[in-house]
Amino acid sequence: MSDNPVVLVERDGSGIVTVTLDRPDTKNSVPRAGWIELAEVFGDIAGRADDRVVVLTGAGGDFCSGSDLRGGDSADSPRRAMRIVNAALLAVRDLPQPTIAAVSGVAAGGGFNLALACDLAVAEETARFSQIFARRGLSVDFGGTWFLTHMLGLHRAKELAFFGRMLPAADVHALGLLNKVVPEGEALAQAYEWARELLALAPLALSQTKEMLNLAASGSFHDSVLREAAAQNINGTTEDTREAIRAFLEKRDPVFRNR
């Protein structure tokens, strides 16, 4: 980690991890070191059984304005720089635990796509979103070409990517890119409410469901049902699944141990 961390990590002891982008003076834009740090943080979370749900947010009233375009490492080639950015993207996207983006203020460029990389996204009604890349002389990155095309269809994806307009949260929700819009100041509370609900579910089975849904977006129907069968075979070997069935039969709440 750097001496001046970009990413703050807080654990509440229940299994909820809050990851906060902490550069409010730049609307939480992410420098080169910040992408490396984000990949390390999510890599650490991926290996921890006590981390059950992740809430991703930004400090100071904004979510993330994308990559910090000021300065940069002159020794980095664009290809090397994008490897660093993509490592952070894959660390977020492939995390076994469910992720919830709590968006306030600005979510632009890579910040918009960082929210789309999460499993669930809630935004305040005053939040603003933009695929700003074209207005900065750049092409879409941080998974945006995949997210937009798969979530919107080709023509709507091109509209957002070509024009880079700033859109209110209500419009982004209407497009299907957000799960919920809430009043100003309530995104984080809604994210924690969902996180507590997810804590009540069997973590291994939930992780498998997440992985299969992600893969189904680009795979065949046949591949999906084969993965479903394989996942159910694994579930049948876990203590948590046996506990869930016992609890159902005994008419009580299950106690899951992530094994």
From the structure above, extract its key features.
10 helices, 6-stranded mixed beta sheet, globular, 259 residues, 3-stranded mixed beta sheet, single chain, 15% strand, alpha/beta
Describe the 3D structure.
With 259 residues, the chain is of the alpha/beta class. The chain is built from ten helices and nine strands. The protein is 45% helix and 15% strand. The chain has a six-stranded mixed β-sheet, with helices on both faces.
List the helices and strands and how they pair.
Layout lengths: L6 E5 L4 E6 L10 H15 L6 E6 L19 H16 L5 E5 L2 E3 L1 H8 L2 E5 L3 E3 L13 H9 L1 H10 L3 E2 H6 L5 E3 L4 H13 L3 H14 L4 H15 L3 H11 L10
Parallel strand pairs: 2-3, 3-4, 4-6, 5-7, 6-9
Antiparallel strand pairs: 1-2, 7-8
User: Low-confidence runs (pLDDT<50, min 5 residues)?
Assistant: none
Biggest sheet features: 6 strands, mixed
Strand order of the largest sheet: 1-2-3-4-6-9
Number of helical elements: 10
Average pLDDT reading: 92
- Outline, from the CA principal axes? globular
Q: Helix-strand pattern, N to C?
A: EEHEHEEHEEHHEHEHHHH
Strand content: 5-15%
Family: Belongs to the enoyl-CoA hydratase/isomerase family.
Protein name: Enoyl-CoA hydratase-related protein
Keywords: Lyase
Give a brief description.
The protein is α/β, with parallel strands linked by helices and 259 residues long.
